[in-house]
């Protein structure tokens, strides 16, 4: 195993929603693997380091996806598995110990180290949980060592964050006895967006608010029966289960996209913490109005246009709700890798019954439907965009929606613009 530390950097749900027909598909899939989540997680957790145990392909994926600058010193790397590791000619655990010891010697700033599994390490059954336990005993308390899977086998790429946060939940402190009710924001958000939400909650009078992940991975908020949590991302099903196993309670809300989604998300917390309705309206009114004005610039280009989502990031359902209810678009098909009805019920309830909801992926069949539907805009993965563009269909890269700040009032205009831009480009090319 060689070291590639090329360290570069609301409405209530309708009664019929539980029986709403869903087209479930199983077949060929076109998605990135869960290692991609490291690209935004390593920026969020500023004292953490992500060591992928994988192949040269894993290393190339991370370096190209991160767009790393030559002078950067990032917080991720790849311990490359060579042929002798795969053939069992050496003890992979001993090799991993050597790489980790060298890394921590070089980087004393690391406080939390994630050993990240990949397709190659999982295929040869390399036990990273055992490695994390062994190495943690050696390096604690200076460094906490955890593990999670970023493998692309039967997963979609945003699940890398889900498995990472699930690994952090057991490390969260136990809520002290008699603790007052507290709020937890769950899901990695850009710092500027997180700060905006924290300011709004403070203005609402909600005093005890924590975030998962925390900006410092060693500074995790406590969790327990008095914890109420809001999901900021719809792809965190395993994390939600782990939190509920610790006694936390999820607040049911739409996801905070656009003026209406953000209002509903904030209102769910306000109701739980008994914030006066008049005070709530006073606090959110300026942001809500800013969002509506900002979205108006793109509404004229989006209203009446037809849109299809191919399954990619699990953001598809709340984004389809935002575009159809707030921007006047018509959702033709809303495809998502996994449909978690409990988490998505408020968003799903506001998508027109005429929209086709699909779960899972069978690329050939989905492409056939897109060709037959001929939507004005198709949201899909990078690998499908160029072929569809060559056939005269306008596309939007789904992954850009994961890397861009799109949550909250002050990002609502930017979110709408992300969908208006490809339509504007198409119109200019046709002139």
Task: Describe the secondary structure blueprint for this structure.
Elements: E1 2-4, E2 23-26, H1 38-44, E3 48-54, H2 56-66, E4 76-80, H3 83-86, H4 92-106, E5 112-117, H5 119-123, H6 128-139, E6 144-149, H7 159-168, E7 182-186, H8 191-204, E8 209-212, E9 227-231, H9 237-245, E10 249-250, H10 258-272, H11 277-302, E11 306-309, H12 316-326, E12 330-336, H13 341-349, E13 356-361, H14 363-373, E14 377-380, H15 382-390, E15 395-397, H16 399-403, H17 412-430
Parallel strand pairs: 2-13, 3-4, 3-5, 5-6, 7-8, 7-9, 9-10, 11-12, 11-14, 12-13, 14-15
Antiparallel strand pairs: 1-4
Helix pairs in contact: 7-9, 10-11, 11-17
Would you kindly provide a written description of the structure presented here, covering whatever features stand out?
With 431 residues, the chain is α/β, with parallel strands linked by helices. The chain folds into two domains: 2-30 and 33-155, Rossmann fold; 279-430, Nitrogenase molybdenum iron protein domain (Rossmann fold, 3-Layer(aba) Sandwich). It is 45% helix and 16% strand. It has 17 helices and 15 strands. It has helices at 38-44, 56-66, 83-86, 92-106, 119-123, 128-139, 159-168, 191-204, 237-245, 258-272, 277-302, 316-326, 341-349, 363-373, 382-390, 399-403, 412-430; strands at residues 2-4, 23-26, 48-54, 76-80, 112-117, 144-149, 182-186, 209-212, 227-231, 249-250, 306-309, 330-336, 356-361, 377-380, 395-397. The chain has a six-stranded parallel sheet, with helices on both faces. Helix 7 runs parallel beside helix 9 (237-245) and helix 10 (258-272) runs antiparallel to helix 11 (277-302). The longest helix is centred in the last third of the chain and has 26 residues, at 277-302. Residues 2-16 have low confidence and may be disordered.
């Amino acid at each position: 195993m060689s070291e590639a530390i090329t360290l570069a950097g609301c409405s209530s749900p309708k009664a019929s929603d539980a029986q709403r027909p869903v087209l479930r598909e199983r077949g060929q899939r076109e998605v990135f693997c869960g290692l991609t989540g490291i690209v935004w997680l390593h920026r969020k957790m500023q004292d953490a380091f992500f060591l992928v145990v994988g192949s040269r392909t894993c290393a190339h994926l991370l370096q190209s996806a991160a767009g790393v600058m030559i002078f950067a010193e990032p917080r991720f790397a790849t311990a490359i598995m060579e042929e002798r590791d795969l053939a069992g000619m050496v003890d992979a655990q001993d090799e991993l110990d050597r790489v980790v010891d060298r890394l921590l010697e070089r980087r004393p700033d690391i406080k939390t180290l994630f050993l990240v599994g990949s397709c190659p390490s999982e295929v040869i059954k390399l036990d990273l949980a055992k490695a994390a336990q062994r190495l943690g005993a050696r390096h604690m308390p200076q460094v906490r060592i955890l593990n999670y899977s970023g493998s692309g086998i039967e997963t979609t790429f945003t699940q890398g964050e889900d498995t990472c946060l699930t690994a952090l939940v057991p490390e969260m402190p136990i809520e002290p006895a008699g603790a007052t009710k507290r709020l937890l924001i769950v899901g990695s958000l850009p710092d500027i967006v997180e700060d905006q939400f924290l300011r709004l909650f403070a203005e609402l009078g909600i005093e005890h608010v924590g975030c998962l992940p925390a900006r410092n991975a060693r500074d995790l908020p406590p969790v327990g029966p008095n914890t109420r949590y809001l999901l900021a991302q719809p792809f965190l099903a395993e994390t939600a289960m782990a939190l509920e196993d610790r006694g936390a309670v999820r607040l049911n809300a739409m996801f905070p996209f656009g003026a209406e989604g953000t209002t509903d998300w904030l209102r769910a917390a306000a109701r739980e913490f008994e914030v006066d309705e008049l005070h709530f309206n006073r606090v959110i009114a300026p942001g809500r109005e800013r969002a509506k004005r900002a979205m108006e610039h793109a509404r004229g280009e989006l209203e009446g246009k037809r849109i299809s989502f191919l399954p990619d990031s699990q953001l598809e359902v709340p984004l389809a709700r935002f575009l159809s209810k707030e921007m006047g678009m018509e959702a033709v098909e809303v495809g998502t890798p996994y449909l978690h009805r409990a988490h998505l019920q408020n968003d799903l309830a506001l998508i027109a019954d005429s929209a086709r909801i699909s779960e899972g992926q069978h690329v050939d069949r989905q492409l056939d439907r897109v060709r037959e539907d001929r939507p004005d805009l198709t949201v899909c993965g990078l690998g499908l965009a160029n072929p569809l563009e060559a056939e005269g269909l306008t596309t939007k890269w789904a992954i850009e929606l994961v890397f861009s700040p799109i949550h909250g009032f002050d990002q609502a205009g930017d979110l709408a613009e992300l969908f208006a831009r490809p339509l504007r480009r198409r119109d200019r090319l046709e002139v």
